[in-house]
Amino acid sequence: MTEIRVENLKHVYPNGVVAVNGVNVKISQGEQVSVVGQNGSGKTTLVKHWNGLLKPTDGKVYVGELDSQENSVNVLARTVGYVFQNPNHQIFAASVKDELEFGLKNIGLQKEEIDSRVEYISSEFGLTEFLDINPYRLGFSLRKSVGMASIIAMEPDVIILDEPTTGQDYLGIKAIRGSIKKLREQGKTVIVVSHDMPLVAEDTDRVLVMCDTELIFDGTPSKLFATESILKRTNLLPPQITSFMKKIGRSGSSESILSVSDALDKI
Ligand SMILES: Nc1ncnc2c1ncn2[C@@H]1O[C@H](COP(=O)(O)OP(=O)(O)O)[C@@H](O)[C@H]1O
Ligand SMILES: [Mg+2]
Ligand 1 pocket test: which of 10, 11, 13 has the largest number of ligand atoms within 8 Å of its C-beta? Predict the structure, then answer.
C-alpha cells in the first residue's frame, strides 16, 4: 500500500523556468487519477517527482513513508513506475527481452521469476514474437508497448503513464485502456497524464488539472466537465457525448454524463 503525498511542491529547472508551483495533493492506493492541462502546464514535471526522477526545489514529496529528497530513483521506482511519454527516452537495451529483463534484474528477482514475468508480460502486450528484436526496429506504437510492459512487469504499487495514447491508433488505444482496467482490478494506483477525454471520463475517478504551474482543480471528471470556468481557462473539451447531453439539457448543473451507456440510462 503506497500513498503519495505532495506538500507545497515547487520545481524550478536549472535554466530558471518555474514548472510547478505550490502544488498540494494526496493520492491513496488504488485510485485512478488523470492529470490534464495544456502543453507546458507542468504535468510531466509534477508526476516525475512521484518516483524521484525529479527532486523538489521546494516543498516535500513522500512516497509511502519515504521522503523523495532522501531516496534515489532506484529505490522509489520499486514502488512507483513511470512510463515515459516518449519511449525513446526510456528504452536503451539492445533487444526487447533485455529491456523487459533490465528492471526485473535491478529489483533483484531470481532468474526463474524473471523468465516467468517476461513470458507473461510479453504475451499480455503482444511482444512475444519480437523478444529478440532491437526495440528501435519496432514501430512507435510497439515501442511504446515495450516501455509500458517493462514498467508493469516490475509490479509497482503505483503506475504513472505519461500520455500513453498519444500517437496510437484505435486498436492501440483500446489495448492501453484495457491494461489500465486490469491494473485497477489488481488494486494498483494508476495515474495517467492524458489529452484523451473519453479515457479521462470513463477510466479515471479523479482529475487533477494543471494550469500554468498550478493545480487548479482536483475532483471527479463529472464535476470537471460541468465546471465551465475551468474548461475555458484550460481549453479542455469534454467528450462529445458529455457536450451533447449538456446541449440537449439532459445533464445536471454540477454533474455530467460521461459515457454513451450513462446517456442511454438517462434517456
Ligand atoms: N528539462 C527542462 N529544462 C527546462 N525547462 C523545462 C524542462 N522540461 C520542461 N521544461 C519547461 O517546464 C514547463 C512545464 O513543462 P512540462 O512539465 O513538460 O509540461 P507538460 O507535461 O504539461 O507539457 C514548460 O515551460 C517547459 O518548457
Ligand atoms: Mg508532458
Answer: 13
Q: Which atom of ligand 1 is nearest to the CA of 162?
A: 21
**Ramachandran region of residue 22, left (φ > 0), alpha (ψ -120 to 50) or beta?**
left
* Grid cell of 267 as nine digits: 434517456
Cell of 204: 479515471
Torsion of CA 216, 221, 226, 228, to 10 degrees: 30
pLDDT at 170 over 90: no
Phi, psi at residue 126, to the nearest 5°? 65, 35
Q: Which amino acid is at 262?
A: D
pLDDT at 147: 95
What's the rounded mean pLDDT across residues 150-157? 96
- Phi first, then psi, for residue 143 (nearest 5°) are -65, -35
Distance CA(217)–CA(265), nearest Å, equals 28
Domains of the chain: 4-79+156-266 (3.40.50.300), 85-155 (no CATH)
Please state, in angstroms and rounded to a whole number, the distance separating the CA atoms of residues 253 and 154. Answer: 43
Query: Which residue CA neighbors atom 25 of ligand 1 most closely?
Result: 40
pLDDT band at 246 (very low <50, low <70, confident <90, very high): confident
Please indicate whether residue 209, judged by its CB atom, sits closer than 6 Å to ligand 1. Answer: no
